[in-house]
Amino acid sequence: MLLTRLHPLTLSLLLALQPAVQAEEMANNADAEAAIEVMSITGKKVAYANNATDESAKLQQAAISNVMDLINKLPGVNVAQGDAFGSDDYTTTVSMRGFVIDRADQQIGITVDGIPNGGSAYAGGSKANRYLDSENTGFVEVGQGTGDISSASLDALGGTINFVSANPMAEQQARLDYSTGSFNARRYFARFDSGEVLGNTTSYFSLSDSYNSRWIGTGSNGFSNRLHAEAKSVTELDNAKITARFSYDDAHEDNYDYRSLTQFKQNPKFDGLTNIWTGNPDIDQNFAEAWSTLRENTLAYVKGDFTLSENLQLDVSPYLHLQEGRGDWLPPYQVYATDAKGQQISQGNGAKRQTFNYVDAQGRPILDPKADTSNAKRVSSYRHTHYDKNRYGLTANLNWQLDNQQIRTGLWFEQQERNQSRDWHQVLDAKVYHYYDETPYWVQFNDDYQNDVMKFYVQDKIALGDLELTLGVQQYLVDVERNDNFNSANNGSLDSDSDLLPSVGLVYPLTANLEFFAGFSKNFKAIPDTLLNTVGQDFNKLEPETAQNFDLGLRYQGDSINASATLYNINFDNRITLLAYQEVDGAPDYLTELDGTFVNVGGVKSKGLEANIDWRFADSLSLNSGLTLNNSEYTQNVNGYREGDKVAAIPEQMLSATLKYQHENYRAGLGAKYTAEYFGAAKRTEINKVAVWNRDEIPALTLLNLYAGYHAEMAQAGLIQTLDLSFIINNLTDKRYLAGGQEGAYLLGAERSASLTISLGF
Prior knowledge:
Blueprint: H1 2-5, H2 8-16, H3 32-39, E1 51-52, H4 56-59, E2 77-80, E3 93-96, E4 99-101, E5 109-112, E6 115-116, E7 137-144, E8 159-165, E9 173-181, E10 185-193, E11 201-213, E12 223-236, E13 240-254, H5 261-266, H6 281-284, E14 292-309, E15 312-329, E16 334-338, E17 352-356, E18 358-359, E19 377-378, E20 381-401, E21 405-426, E22 442-464, E23 467-484, E24 492-495, E25 501-509, E26 514-525, E27 545-557, E28 561-573, E29 576-578, E30 583-584, E31 587-588, E32 598-600, E33 604-616, E34 621-634, E35 653-663, E36 666-675, E37 678-681, E38 685-687, E39 690-692, E40 695-698, E41 701-713, E42 722-730, E43 738-742, E44 745-748, E45 753-761
């Protein structure tokens, strides 16, 4: 490919010559003037690389889609979904500059309106799709490598992603949408804006209901449904603004399974899960409707912005997050757990665990594998892992504007209490279906965790003529405790405090339209509490993860041109990863207390180029594009990884481009994203008795998306004020591809899908 032959400096110069489109004005947004700067795709004028989505990002995604997809075409970012519409959190992955969010690692911070999301892990985490519908998303800010110093996250090693909710409309109005699409997709969305009430308050309330089947197979092939509600109000006072927001999300998602590269080549449309109940537990353990994620999330916050004086502003945001969740699997056996005396127990791991497949006529387990089972009854289990979490906290930031300085200081406090338990239920009759006894026959573990977090920061932005210099420092204080409700000997605690984390940066205008920026920051990720649940883990051998990030770049903004290019270099130390769960005969080892063990796999070094352009080359036509060239390598020989090898599952070259047409009532666009081949695995293995490290070359791919729409303003005297039609085709050419995943385990990319949304405004 041409891109692989061009030097990064050559590419950056070529991109700097390209024109780009100015950010669109946020119509009817009460905070439009403050938000215009961050709406530019080239990002805010700060000392680190950052980009933001514009309104066109939502036009390219089906209304039923996951809001995480909105950032997929920004430079440096790769979002992969197992489901055609992103409705399976289990298989949603994000990578950015060699850092990832996947089933094993959470190295990128996510916030919603600056409120921490509580982690992004499958096991109890909540990505942005649990809190936002796309219609209520104003824009998304991405800080690649470095986030704003005030960002509240324990995962922000590789930067932050802040999803900003839209503000209420100034005029009273209502909206009703209906969507239909491939794979039995349907969605209802309704929103009511109150307009201005009491002379100073605007608000809205929305409700959506979504459903779609898994794209793989038909019939009982699994499904996803989601009920989601949001409300927001903004009250303007003389010297204050009060914003309150509430979201509720109740989701049931049947999962997809990961595949090897060999399995993908055998059949790129089958993930190994079945759609017909056979009555044979060895086959039915893969029944799609029994691989499920159930999550219920409620998030509420109140933010007060106060003008204390002409030069002093304070904002305070208390928040509350409640989560209940469950993950389901269908082991093809039952478990007979005993204590040290050989007595059967119903709680705790015990001294010994033995699996059995049959019971006799009296319902007693047959433990002897050589026993005659010709007249016995076959049994299986329905395994539930429960995730319950309560979080409360606040963020507070003080801004003090002096003659040539802006001093910011603030704190983030959070207390989190969560419970994680696992119980096993008897399937009533394995020949019939996975109906189960709601009283568990065995509770494997039941653990309570408490996380106490305190973060402090201070930053000084100094204007020295045209030069803007920024100096900052932050620190995290993190305490974690675990209480085993069955065995107090397993109780434990750890402190995961950071050192003082410095940051420094500068911004200098070279011309009226072109600015230079450079920045350094030391980022930190706390040791997660899940480590306390691993058996035999030596915590003294683990160190918190840190990353030193350097950015060097240019931004250009003109009448019809926006562009940016950033060179970066990152040193990532003490990388902790969760070794993937073991498999037995191709099926998960259902008895593992956690799905693996945490280890430091050494350091990682990443360097590369990110660039993007926006070009409005005619009144009705525009083009935007993003380029990523990334090289991430291991820097040590440790735990089966080899110095100099490529980091697993990280794309090295990506290029996205979207051609957009907008004229009067009509709109259309064609988007493309190219991803070059990359290695899917790096850990040492043996193939034909020969040691192999980098392997599983994931094929290159180009995905095309097409959208078209029509918007009309109706007669003012009628009931219906506006009509909008939106038609979207994703994976236009029906490519067969791998959409990411994690080391050695990959996601099948969804086949072509189409959706149509009809929106009425009242």
